[in-house]
Design a protein that fits this description.
169 residues, alpha/beta, 5-stranded parallel β-sheet, binds coenzyme A
Length: 169
């Protein structure tokens, strides 16, 4: 490892992790010495999975990749990034529609902390239309998630659906 390890933080809600996220993390493996997947604790998105469940899922998927760490954070992202001695925020850019929002966040984060750089990575085009919300919608309606999420996520969503069906019966 280099004298100054290249540490990147990949923040998000990850409710749940999709293969698009996995693709970004795997691309990062070639660029960084450590990648910290950072799950926002108080997301206003009313997540389906608890923070602990999301941590567990991502740890399980990357169990054989010790340079991928999973943590949670609250407060300002730049403060968290600094606390981990990282200088890079990784974000995925799927489509042009992501760009405006991501640009605004990156410039605001730079305004807040000029020594932290945002690095954008493009996931493989087969994941350009994947989002966690669509994944949850498809799962709730019994559609196939093959190739869109890791098997552990597929299994957890199926379990949720079965539980919801049993409750309704
Ligand atoms: N593959 C598949 N889906 C992807 C993806 C990829 N490569 N990249 C993003 N997405 C999807 C996510 O699944 C998510 O979908 P959803 O909206 O259906 O849930 C959506 O794109 C973007 O969400 P996410 O990546 O989770 O980011 P976010 O916008 O929810 O959270 C934070 C962004 C956590 C980085 C931001 O809110 C933050 O920094 N908060 C801390 C407070 C702070 O510092 N605020 C000031 C920031 S300037």
């Amino acid at each position: 490892m280099a004298a100054h390890p290249r540490i990147a933080v990949y923040p998000g809600t990850f409710d749940p992790l999709t293969n698009g996220h996995v693709d970004i993390i795997e691309r990062g493996l070639a660029l960084f010495d450590r990648i910290i997947v950072a799950i926002l604790e108080n997301s206003g998105k009313h997540p389906l999975f608890t923070v602990a469940e999301r941590v567990g899922i991502i740890r399980e998927v990357f169990a054989d990749k010790p340079i991928v760490e999973v943590e949670t954070f609250g407060g300002l992202l730049v403060d968290y990034v600094r606390s981990r001695r990282a200088h890079v925020i990784v974000r995925g850019l799927r489509t042009v529609s992501d760009f405006d929002y991501e640009r605004q966040m990156a410039l605001m984060n730079r305004h807040l902390s000029s020594d932290i750089e945002t690095v954008f990575m493009m996931p493989s085009e087969q994941y350009a239309y994947v989002s966690s919300t669509l994944i949850k919608d498809i799962a709730a309606l019994g559609g196939s998630l093959a190739g869109l999420v890791p098997p552990v996520v597929d299994a957890r969503l199926a379990r949720r659906r079965e539980a919801a069906t049993t409750r309704r019966a």
